[in-house]
């Protein structure tokens, strides 16, 4: 058995990312689950690009602020204390609009961890 207590504030931000991303997965040694805290200032996005996963299920729990998630069909506005779930093969781009007045903080969870993001171009 193994247990970890991780304070995301004590973790180093992921380098070369669009927002402040703290990988709980890396600090805790999780093998199959992606887990990270993201804090996005106005105008920043959560992932590096608009994307989808072939196998990974993802959930974005909004801790503070309001998250916007663009999909091919609509844009979801996810308030604090709510969760957006993206199933496999569901393109999405989570972001904090430039017009926002406050940052948004999200706990992102996904499994399987090893399923890479596949870029999605909404104009194709």
What does this structure look like?
Residues 37-98 form the Cupin type-2 domain. The chain is 4% helix and 37% strand. The chain has 124 residues and is mainly beta. A five-stranded antiparallel β-sheet has the order 1-2-9-4-7. It has a three-stranded antiparallel β-sheet with strand order 6-5-8, with no helix packed on it. The protein has one helix and ten strands. The chain starts with 19 loop residues before the first strand and ends in a 5-residue tail after the last strand. It has a domain at 11-39.
> What structural category characterises the helix and strand content?
mainly beta
Approximate helicity band: under 10%
**Spatial order of strands in the largest sheet:** 1-2-9-4-7
Topology, number of strands? 10
Radius of gyration: 14 Å
Low-confidence stretches: none
Shape: globular
Tell me the series of helices and strands, N- to C-terminal: EHEEEEEEEEE
Distance from N terminus to C terminus (CA atoms, Å) equals 47 Å
Average predicted local confidence, pLDDT? 95
Largest sheet: 5 strands, antiparallel
DSSP helical segment count: 1
Strand content: 35-45%
Summary, kept brief:
The protein has 124 residues and is mainly β. It has one helix spanning 24-28, and strands spanning 20-23, 34-40, 51-52, 57-64, 67-70, 75-78, 83-86, 93-95, 104-111, 118-119. It is globular.
């Amino acid at each position: 058995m193994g247990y970890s207590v991780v304070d995301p504030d004590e973790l180093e931000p992921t380098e070369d990312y669009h927002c402040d991303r703290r990988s709980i997965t890396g600090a805790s040694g999780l093998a199959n689950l992606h887990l990270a805290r993201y804090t996005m200032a106005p105008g920043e996005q959560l992932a590096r690009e608009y994307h989808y996963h072939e196998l990974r299920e993802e959930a974005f729990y909004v801790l503070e602020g309001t998250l916007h998630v663009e999909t091919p069909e609509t844009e979801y506005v996810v308030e604090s204390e709510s969760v957006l779930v993206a199933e496999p093969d569901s393109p999405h781009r989570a972001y904090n609009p430039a017009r926002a007045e406050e940052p948004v903080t999200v706990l992102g969870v996904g499994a399987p961890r090893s399923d890479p993001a596949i870029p999605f171009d909404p104009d194709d």
